[in-house]
Amino acid sequence: MFPEDIEQTAAAIVAAASRRGWTVATAESCTGGLVAGALTAIAGSSAVVDRGFVTYSNAAKAEMLGVPTETIEAHGAVSEPVARAMAAGARVTADVDLAVSITGIAGPGGGSAEKPVGLVHFGCAGPDGVVHEVHRFGDIGRERVRLESVRVALGLLLAACEAE
User: Fold this and answer.
1) pTM for this structure?
2) Which one, 77, 92, 153, 158, has least CB within 10 Å?
3) Is the pLDDT of residue 92 over 90?
4) DSSP letter (8 states) at residue 7
């Protein structure tokens, strides 16, 4: 279902998290559950994946993940503070060891000069706090922005699982 590299990374996450006895949750906006889908495509993922939150609207981010509405209003949904809050909120709400978040503009519309199509913010919350990454994929098409976002999110989870 997913490209081979995504399946391989997802399998590595499931194996690494299983070894550590860790559980994982996802908090996804522009990817609409694709990260959770990639993880749950792997046999044995039920020992690792707790849940996935698809929080496409601002209201869902606030209600399901506890992202303060003030943060969304001040910075916009596609921002570092919101990505960090989504990841932290998913980790706390699901009571898991790791949570990854994705919020971005996949296109083809919805972009602006300040926040163009292809801008995606990521958060990964774990035992050592929350890390953030931002990627500017450009206007490469909705499907490619979403798939590249899945790759980045899985990479963040794998790095967290493999950190000492």
Assistant:
1) 0.98
2) 92
3) yes
4) H
